[in-house]
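Let us work through a complete example step by step.
Step 1: write down the sequence.
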Amino acid sequence: MIEFAEPSRLRAVRPVSLAVLALPAVFLGYLSGFPGGAGFVLMVAAVAAAGVLRASRIPHRAAYAPVPVLIGLLLEAVAAPVGFGTEVVVGLAGVAFLVWLADDPARPAGGAVRGLSGVALPALALGIAWSSALFLPSGVVPLGVAGALLALAIAAVAFLVGRPSLLDRGEARS
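Step 2: predict the structure and record it as C-alpha cells.
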C-alpha cells in the first residue's frame, strides 16, 4: 500500500525579511522605558508570534500576523524616552515593518523588491525628517528650509503618483 506524506502545515518563512523586522524592533524594545528588560521580551515575543502566524497555512491565522508586531511597536514607541536616537530606531522599525509586510510568503518570490515602491515614500519622508533634525539649527529661517524640503518631497510624490508605471513592477517572474 502506498502512503502519501501529509502536507506540511507551515508555509515557508522568509528569514531575511523577518530578521530585517526583528533587528530594529527588538533594539527598540531594549531602548524602551519598560523596567527590567520587559520591552525587550515584549518585542521578541511579538516578532516570534508574527513569524509563527505568518508561517501558518491557515489563511485566517496568517492574516493576523502583523497584529502582534503593531501592538508591540505601538507600546514600545509610547514608552520610549524622547530623544533623537530612539526616534531614529522607531523610524527604522516602522520602515522595516513595511518591508516585512511586502515580503509576504503568500505572494510570488520577490515580494520585498516589488514592495520597494510602497516603502520608498515613507523612507524618503523619514530621511527628510532626520536630515532636517540633524543639519538644520532651530529657529525661524531653518523652518523655511524645512518647509521647502517638505514641498519638494510633496512635488516628488505628486510626480510619482502621476506616473504609476514608474512604480508598478507587476508580478514576479516564475
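Step 3: interpret the result. The CA atoms of residues 95 and 170 lie 22 Å apart.
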